[in-house]
Amino acid sequence: MRRRTRQLSWSSEPPRAIPKHPYRDTALVYAFFAVLVVLVAWATGGPVVKAVVLAVAFFVAAVSWSWFRWRQRLAQQSAAEERL
Q1: N or C: fewer beta carbons within 10 Å in the chain?
Q2: Do the Cβ atoms of 34 and 42 come closer than 8 Å?
């Protein structure tokens, strides 16, 4: 006997508008977080060099992923506008 499973659907809320500068805004937010990681390491007496390396690595990974997703979203929006 198979069980029926329910799937949650979050599609009831309208899609958010794309910001005017999505790439720049994303980079600024993640740069802030990277600086925050380094400042916390410095303020707590932790290894600042390790914190800088970790912050740069996470910044690059996060920005790369976000830019990839923005490109997908912008392409979907362009395709939807062309269909109209």
Answers
A1: N
A2: no
